[in-house]
Amino acid sequence: MSTKKYLLSLALLMAASAVSAENPLVQTCYTTDPAPMVSGDRLYLYTGHDEDGADFFWMQEWRVYSTDDMVNWTDHGSPLAIEDFAWGDDRAWAPQTIERNGKFYFYVPLHSKLTGAMAIGVAVGDTPTGPFKDALGKPLADGNWAYIDPTVFIDDDGQAYLYWGNPEIYYVKLNDDMISFEGEVQKMEMTVEGFGKGKMVEMEPGKDYRTTYTEGPWIMKRNGKYYMIYAAGGIPEHIAYSVSDTPTGPWKYMGVIMPQSDGTNSFTNHPAVMDYKGKSYFFYHTGNLPGGGGFARSVAAEPFEYNADRTFPTILPTKEGAPAVGTLNPRTRVEAETMAWSEGVSSEQNDKTGVYVSDIHNGDYIKIANADFGKGGMKKFGASVASALRGGVIEVRLDSQDGPVLAELKVPGTGGWENWKYIETPVASDATGVHDIYLVFKGRKGPKLFNFDYWQFK
Ligand code: FUB
Predict the structure, then answer these.
(1) Whole-angstrom Cα distance, residue 215 to residue 162?
(2) Which single residue of 299, 339, 380, 391 has CA 20 to 30 Å from 425?
(3) Are 226 and 161 within 8 A, CB to CB?
(4) 215 is catalytic
(5) pTM: predicted TM-score of the whole model, two decimal places
């Protein structure tokens, strides 16, 4: 074995250090208002989408991501958008999805053409990633400007509840079909004891928050107690919570979970809490992607443990986020849009290909965390790619952007951005054990190089 090959093998054998996710969780576009849901062995994350360069929440669509290890997130694109609701014309704001009897119910707030105010709609699908269809052809609840941010939950007795509202909470008891409800929309009693004492807010003169409750409610039940978690304090928002012995109150204000801090770079925040693979996670959003801010937000997650007395700890935003709870198998087909981190690239979708990675330029890269190469024995690296220009190169590197090169795949022009070709190359070096993979894109400076659908080691 040559000295060079020996050194390379040594480097590849090095055990990777403990792997964490990186916040924000999505780098290919701005994402907002996270709403996690566990279905089967995956955690799905439903989000809003802040448009590039927006000067308000001019949001057009909802997006879905999923993970089975909390560090690598797969982009499932946008299965639902304003145009899927004939009665809606604006403001695709904070959603939540829930599973019942094998169907997935996707609740959204949307600006209603019918009333000129906000309304709550519901779409239904057969899988967590859609396709979804407006279940009613009209709003489930068409009301007023307060009708935003639905949150849904099914109690142990099978009764489902839907809540929403800014700066007061409305709720209904959903029927078993999840797309209708009995009686009138109810308004929660918003007491200071239940939701903390509010204050006049400098940034919104004239708006009087009687309680700290502002918007973005997230309902959950744990150990027989009902928890309402919400954006609080007017603008800028922090996250606070209240508890109750019933799903409809009376509530007891419990205090702050995530304090307002300049570190979030966003005047809104939006909470969600989910247990997955035996651990608890707190989801929120910040403006912490490059170019981010109040109208360019990004979802993030933190692991946490409840205090012994069942209260929430204080949770602060971090860059590291959640540790890995699984590994990724690089010997199966991996979608290019499954990633722990990326720089420079974005994603697109169409009916034929689904979601794929686009906007690939010289020097961009995708990181895949915690890939388990096992005992090694890799012979080939292949990828499905398309380029209407001259293509480029995918350098497969281990553990860093300039780590050892495992393979170098030359991507040719394929005659079109949708003209997919599966290209393979022998690996230059084998790897064993668990490593991060960096797919580093090289080519001529300036133009877009190629599109990228999936990859795999053999
Ligand atoms: O994303 C639009 C709005 O901003 C949401 O509905 C609120 O919760 C706030 O995050």
Answers:
(1) 14
(2) 339
(3) no
(4) yes
(5) 0.94
